[in-house]
Each structure stands twice: as C-alpha cells, then as structure tokens.
Amino acid sequence: MTNQNQELQLQQQLRQRLSPQQILLMKLIQAPVMVLEQRIKEEIENNPALETSEDDSENQEEITEDFETPEHEPEHEKDDKQEESEQESDAENEFTFEDYLDEDDLPDYRTYSNNYSDDNTKEYPIVSSKSFHESLVEQLRLRNLNETDFQIGLQIIGSIDDSGYLSRKPETIADDLAFMKNIQVSDKHIIDILFIIQDFDPAGIGARDLKECLLLQLKRKTLTQTIRNAILVLNKYFDEFSKKHYDRILKKTNMSEEQLKDIVKEILKLNPKPGDFSPDIYLINQSIIPDFILHTTGDKIDIQLNNSDIPELHISREYREMLDYYSKNNTKSHSQNKEAIQFVRSRIEAAQWFIDAVRQRKDTLLAVANAIIDMQREYFITGDEEKVKPMILNDISKKVNMDVSTVSRVASSKYIQTPFGTFLLKNLFSESVQNDEGDEISNKEIKYVLKKIVDNEDKSAPLNDDKLLELLKEQGYNIARRTVAKYREKLNIAPARLRKEL
C-alpha cells in the first residue's frame, strides 16, 4: 500500500458571466420586429404583472361605467353614493392570497385563455392536399402489381429525394429490402419497377441524374423534329451541351444554328427538379416587415423604428397595490406573508426587467441605425450604390461606444425600408479597396460596376475574367484577377463559357 498525500488548495478565478437581464436584452436586440411582437405576447401571457396600455384603458372604462351617476343627481347624494360604492368595492376586492399559497389551485389567468373563447370566433376551412411522396404512392396503388413489386415500389419512392431524383443505387435498395422486409430481389427487378415509377407524374420523376431527367420529360412530348434533335443532343453530346460548347455540337451534328437555338429553347423549358412541385398550400409567401423606416426630404433624413404593432408596456396597478397591501397586512402567519410577498415581487421585478429591456432595445437600435446613416448619408439621399462608403462593424462600434457583437446583432437581422427599396442593414457593410488615385472605395461599388459590365456584354461572346479585369482597371479599379473571380461568384455570375448564348 502506498500512501498518497492529498492536499486541499484554494484558487482564485475571475470569470465574467452574463446576468439574466443581459441575456434577455441580447435576445431582444437580435429579434426582428415580428419576433418581438410574439415575444411580448408570450411575456404578457406568462406574467400577469405585465400589462399594455390597452388593458389599462379597458379597466378604466369598466370602472367609469360602474361608478357613473346621473347628471341631475344632487352633489351631496353623489358624494354619499360614491362613498358607499367605494366601501362596497373595497369589501368585494379585498385581497386574498390563498390561491397563490395553495399548491392544488391555479390562478384564473393560467386557465382562462385555454378554456374560454369568443362566441363570435369564425371558423375557416382547412384545405387538405397530398404531399409529393403521397402522390407517388397513390399512383403506385393504381398499378396492377403483386405484393412484392408493390413493396419494392414503396422502397424506391421512399428513396426519392425532394428534388425528384433517385440517388441510391439498386443494390443498396435491394439490401434494404432484404434486411427490413425479408424480400430477396435482383438489381434488374428493382430497375424494372423503377421504370414503372418513372412513368408517373410529374414527368422526370425517379431519374438517376440530370441527363435522364431531361430525357424522360422530352419523351413525353409530341415527337417533332426539334424534340428528336433535342433527344439526340442530350444522348450523344450532353457534356458539350452542359458546358455550352455549341460550336462543337454544330460541327459534329451538321445542324444549322437556328436548329440548335430551337433545341436550346426546348430544353430550357424542362424542369431540372421535378420534385419541386409543391401545391399552393405549401408555398409560404413571407413578406418582409422592416424594423426601420427611413424618409428623405431633400438633404434631410428621418429614421424611426417600426413600432406600430408594439404595445406600450407597464406594471399592473393591481399588482402594485397587491404588494403594498400585503406588505402592510399582519393578519396572516409570517410564512404565508413571506411567500405571498415573494411571489408578487418576483412577478413585478420580471415585468420591470422586460420593460427596461424593450426600452433599451429601442435606444440601441436607433443609436446603431443613426450611426450607419451618418456614415452612408450620401447613399441614403441619392440611392446610388456607387456612393456606398467602406464600412465595417468596428467603425459603428466606435461611434456608438458599444461592443462589436451588439452592432452585429442589430445589423444581421434588421431590415430598413427606404425610398429605393427594403434591405438588410448588413448589406451596407463592406471592406475598403484603394483605387488608382489612392482613395478608399467600397468593394460594393466594384461589384456594382462589375454587374453592369456583365449585364451589357455581348452574350454571344461573353467576357472572361481577364477581360473583366481589364475593363475594371480602365475605370480606375485596380484589383487582382482572383478578386474579380471572387466578386463574380458572390454576385452569382457564371463563368464566361456558361453565359454564352446563341
């Protein structure tokens, strides 16, 4: 036995942790206006101590109606009745906390919204629709297949991806059938069932690659001479066609240029992803709700938050009075008194934290937005993308005296509505590049000029990156060729050979 000496040592460590209030603030700063609206609704439902101005005004109207007296009533009678009403109201509304202290009971606000609804609630019909794979299974059931072939068809349909392609090999599908359903089939048997599925709608479904997908669609069409030529080109010269080497196709087929143009037009009508046919019920049209609204009048710029649907929040008056009343009430036991006070105080503190976070979010967003507008003033007045100045997150961080991460949270998810379009704030941030005169310009300006050059080029002889570089240098933008290629890719502009048109 060896003796091991064990010693206790004290170590001091300095750690920085975010408080719950700071975490809440960061989440609210990052939240767009639609998310903020939903977050406020959830907080109001979960915390009865938090109210909106609308709730308060409704309560005031009810009180006014209850205590309204006729105008012809004498003043002394009004005073007497008012005093009696106040006494009755105090007796009826005397605060009791048994609901909060009894673990078996739930407060009314926890169950009201779930158990009661407006009698005038409208019922809207729900449209039912089949999914993509359900549609294929339904077509499979219409075929006269035995049980084995039907199970093979189900396995194939389950292996078709959302684009409509079968990316799994027949031998892999055969292994799955043997392992999961104890069905032993050959690869040829699976391919035979696949050919049946490829006859389903939409045309091109179940293809194993793009070439087969396009050919399946062409073979469904009326076989005109153009369709026959298109099938010939895809069968024999698919690589040349996909790379737009039209001159090679013309030499090998002895077709005229007009015939090849008709072939290209016909093939471009086909759907390269036949699985992407979603019914209208699945098409979600998401509208952008801007967080900032910007107006310009001459050289004057006005920016404001889009708070039209954000209610004004405040602490419930009832909860304040409840806390004040029970703090002074000594009729109950000390433990009950303490628990009641802790509950009410925690609800009030949580509500106050949330109100402060919403207010601080507003101040932070406006501060960042104003700093961005100050740096990009010329762009916001003219709307000319060539006027965008180079700007990075650190520039705004220094102007508003905030952390870079805070500025990033504001810019990355917030839309701004301007007279010339609605876009993300982060689109205004860009690195700087020096021109021939030594001035710093934004790389967004170079991208804008590059896009204009490509849009105006001759599509029958598109410009390669070397020629694009030469034209940019002629306009004073001294950048490297690899930078041209990088900007072109960011703008989703294809290489020259893929932009060629007949």
* Sheet of most strands: 4 strands, mixed
Strand content: 5-15%
Q: What ranges have pLDDT less than 50 throughout 5 or more consecutive residues?
A: 60-73, 87-128, 278-286
* Global shape: extended
* Rg value: 35 Å
Strand order of the largest sheet: 3-2-5-6
Distance between the termini: 90 Å
Number of helices in the DSSP assignment: 23
Number of strands: 8
Q: Helix share of residues?
A: 40-55%
Average pLDDT for all residues: 77
Give the structural class.
Answer: alpha+beta
Question: In brief, what are we looking at here?
Answer:
54% of the residues lie in helices and 6% in strands.
Set out the fold topology.
Elements: H1 20-30, H2 33-46, E1 50-52, H3 53-66, H4 75-92, H5 98-101, H6 108-115, H7 132-141, H8 147-158, H9 170-180, H10 187-197, H11 210-218, H12 225-236, H13 238-242, H14 246-253, H15 257-268, E2 292-297, E3 300-305, E4 313-315, H16 317-328, H17 334-375, H18 377-382, H19 393-400, H20 404-413, E5 415-418, E6 421-424, E7 432-434, E8 440-442, H21 443-455, H22 465-474, H23 481-490
Parallel strand pairs: 2-5
Antiparallel strand pairs: 1-4, 2-3, 5-6, 7-8
Helix pairs in contact: 1-17, 7-8, 8-10, 9-10, 11-12, 12-15, 16-17, 17-19, 19-20
